[in-house]
Task: structure prediction
Amino acid sequence: MSTAIGERALDRLPVSRYKWPGTALLWLALLMVPLWVPWAGGYVELAGRALVLGLAAMGLNFLLGFTGVMSFGHAAYFGLGAYGAGLMLKYVTGSTLLALFTGTLLGGLAGTILGALIVRRRGVYFAMVTIAYGQIFFYIAYRWNSLTGGDDGLRGFARQPLGVGSWVINIQNNATLFYYFLLAVFAIATGAMAFRLCSPFGRTLIAILENERRARYLGLPVERHIWLAFSVSCFVCATAGALYALLNNFADPMTLHYSLSGEIVIMAVMGGMRTFWGPLLGAAVFVVLQDYISSITVNWMSFIGLLFVLVVLFFPRGLLGILGQRGAP
Amino acid sequence: MSLLEVRSASKNFGSLMAVRQVSLRVERGEMRAIIGPNGAGKTTFFNLITGFFPPTEGEIWFGGRDVTRLSAQRRVSLGMGRSFQVAEIFPELTVRENLRIAVEVGRGLALRPWLGRAKARLVRQAIDEVLAATGLTTKAARLAGELTHGDQRATEIAMVLALRPRLLLLDEPTAGMAEQETYDTVALIRRLHRMNRLTVILIEHDMRVVFHLADRITVLDRGRLLAEGLPDEIAANPAVQAAYLGEPA
Amino acid sequence: MLQLLLFNVTNGLIIGAFYVLMALGLSIILNLSNVINFAHGNFLALGGYLAYVLSPYLGFWGALVMSPLITGIVGFVVERLMIRRVYGRDPVYSLLLTFGLAFILQDACRYVWGTQGLPLTVPAELAQPLSSTLFFITGYRVFMIAIVMLTIIGLFCFLRYTRAGVRIRAGILDLETVAALGVNVGLLRSFNFAVGIFLAGLAGVLAGGQIGLNPNMGDSLLMPTFIAIIVGGVGSLTGTLVGGLIIGVAAALTTMFYPTAADAVIYAIMAIVLLLRPRGLMGEEGMLT
Result:
């Protein structure tokens, strides 16, 4: 039936299995970031950036890596999260948490609604429609100058200290405390995703990834499950976007642009799209490389483009994918 | 009332008439074989029954209900289980994981965020039962994609059984199998049919298998219903012989 | 008023013509290779810049012929070296690959020719307005539309009457059967990719003569082109043609009455079409969806 050129003969990478020791080690490293990152020549804000983009890439990968559905429009939900949080802080409230919540809700709901319209499409067509829908929000932010600041982006807001009663955590000026705030949100979001993946629902996603026809002929409402996965991944991306706005005290229209979608996808693939933590690693590598290359040359775009090409041609399994190749069950 | 009734169903692909006004009644507990030369429209007919695509005209009734316009997954949840010519399984998962997904989807647990202790035990028991029934117990921890042809087929049938179907549709269950595998698969189908009074429709090329298993036989030729009857009647039918030998009837 | 209307309709036709040229190229690559070419707009820019380099030696007419050909050859080489290596793999790889190519090509154009816009001079006889009342209808605009129409007719004739074209059309419907008939599918795809890039290069030269050259000139065309393909229906070249024209005219008419909504309108058209006909206007069951 299927030959080397047939569309059903895609080489699906296997989903790698959860490993506890590695996960524990990873959390230890994440907790210790303020200690070792400056020593390694980085700075804590850069680590925060990697963490936030890593969360976005992991959110996208919930769909890409574990359901096998490819969205190239996730920047839209990331950006909506950023604008939601920024607008809330600028015009409505002084509460960082409320802003985070609003951003998450805005991006997540937008994704959920649009997702319902596109779940019947597959493959490159799905990617195309997700890009096109995603660009709607870019144009809105770009054109609606009075509200969003248009091309210049949304400025004039700042994250506020967290207050619980009389107890105040100053995440506003203390970079280390803010990093731990990011890490806490990151932990909740990734914990929720891991929990979902280990449930019967998560297994149905892997079933769709592995063999959509069989999933359908087990009586699984495939479209509904893809839609739910899409929704989860949009909510996570929106959370990441809201955190990004808090990190920079700025919402950039380019966070809504499809070129960021492409970057999020390359982070996931570079880190290993069939692994849970790979996208975080991919994001870290991407952020550090971008930071470094753009500091030494104006032609950093060529290098990022080259990175895309090299990853696709030579490291399709991604960093963690190579480490975790068959053998370890 | 018949379990499955196809009323004069047709399927055209452009100008190609793959199935032309075929009617079929299958009773509960029956083992029916559908045979016919290559290109007779057997798989297309299966696809019509299971809702892979809608018929151009005609109706399909299942369990006293008109399912003509229902999606494939709805028909599965009404009790139609199906295997394919090339076993459709989850190759990168173990046999047990394959079955686990089938059991969870089949029992309506697919959206559960977690399973309680009781439900988890129920799922485990259901998996073990199906493993035992299909002789896969010793292979439960193997990756499905690394099994032999026959065992992959058995895994697929096990997954379908895990759904507790009322009707089992098997598309060439012994295709491409060696002698021993064919024998095992036939024995498995017979056992399932006997034990659970499961209604089975199978497409088959191997005539020994057909005459060994089937209660009744339906013969398709070039999209048309050519004959239907008991195995002896079919064997003696000159039109059927002509169709297989490629001579005009 | 009539003059304004005519002005906008002409603009719409020209924009639509560019969309159609871009979209047809993108579409034949998508249909046969299942690859979305994100770098299509950058190949367009490359075509324009090549014309800029060649026209001092070959004149505008020579550049108009040679530059798309060279762009097409570049496309052929890129396909042979890179794109073909991702066929049959998860489609995410082909998207990422062309995405990276887009970055590289854009940066390369900027590096070689600078960020400043460059003019592409068209022959004086084409730059004249055709009449003094309808000053905006220059010979160049009429010429552009004529070239685009000829190219489209040429493309459809190529696909219908030449052996390679017939094979491409057959391959879009059923690649495996075409391969089984002994056609070298790999080469067919490379050639087809080159044809698509040729169209982008041609659009680049024409656009350069109208609006000048800059490294990002293809970017603003990419999204409307996607939408044209989606609206027309993925898998149908006629659909792409219709989609491109609809999107172009709609954008121009909105620009006339309410300029800020021009982008919004094409997205709205896409959303409505997808709601009413999920496979696009001319998309059919079983096509690449």
